[in-house]
Backbone:
């Protein structure tokens, strides 16, 4: 639909949009256009298949060049989530993970509440063909599931970003409730959590926890989900570091 007013004041900011291993540069351009429609300007790209930068993306962006020019490139999902305190992933399929499953409107309300609390947030979208894998989903605090025709529920990448951008924008008009009305300390950033989890993983490896070895990946995912689901504050992560230190420094009994 037409309707751009170049004299109007731009609405900018919002949660970061993270595209994990996008396949087509044209889809990245379409995502940039969808983002700017609803004031989302921070785009993070994880290992795009066709490389970056890419002129084919610009051709599809329809003047959303500022989003593409400021896009940041990362090699891994973990690196792309740095600095974020609330991570919401999108998935069309139910997984065997105990995570909150939100409708788009509820997810937008949570993102708005995080923004009001001064917390950095991000929306994670998977590759066009297969979406997010289990390891990527394990890093999210919640998953968004879009109610759609069960016989034809798949959205393309730009449609999914457009839908979430719309809900984000609408949730800011005129005001939204706080996150369940609860007061809480600032959430831990993704890198603060990853530093703790890496230390925990090393300690468990040293203790021989992961048995049998072939179950190690699924055991790690289950542990990660346990802690991510708690949506730890920065103080809670520091407390867990202290617990680890106390356990690791404890003298062995004779």
Residues:
């Amino acid at each position: 639909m037409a309707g751009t007013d170049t004299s109007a004041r731009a609405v900018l900011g919002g949660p970061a949009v993270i595209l994990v291993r996008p396949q087509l540069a044209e889809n990245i351009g379409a995502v940039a256009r969808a983002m700017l429609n609803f004031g989302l300007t921070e785009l993070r790209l994880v290992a795009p298949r066709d490389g970056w930068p890419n002129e084919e993306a610009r051709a599809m962006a329809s003047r959303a060049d500022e989003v593409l020019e400021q896009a940041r490139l990362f090699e891994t999902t973990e690196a792309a989530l740095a600095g974020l305190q609330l991570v919401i992933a999108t998935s069309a399929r139910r997984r065997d993970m105990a995570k909150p499953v939100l409708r788009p409107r509820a997810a937008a309300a949570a993102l708005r509440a995080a923004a009001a609390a001064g917390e950095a947030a991000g929306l994670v979208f998977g590759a066009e063909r297969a979406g997010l894998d289990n390891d990527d989903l394990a890093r999210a605090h919640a998953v968004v599931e879009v109610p759609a025709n069960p016989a034809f529920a798949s959205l393309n990448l730009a449609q999914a970003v457009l839908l979430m951008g719309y809900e984000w924008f609408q949730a800011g008009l005129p005001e939204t409730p706080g996150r369940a009305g609860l007061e809480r300390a600032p959430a831990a950033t993704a890198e603060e959590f990853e530093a703790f989890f890496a230390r925990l993983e090393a300690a468990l490896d040293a203790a021989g926890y992961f048995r049998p070895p072939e179950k190690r990946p699924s055991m790690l995912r289950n542990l990660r989900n346990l802690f991510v689901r708690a949506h730890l504050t920065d103080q809670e992560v520091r407390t867990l570091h202290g617990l680890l230190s106390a356990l690791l420094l404890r003298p062995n009994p004779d």
Notes: The chain has a mean pLDDT of 89.
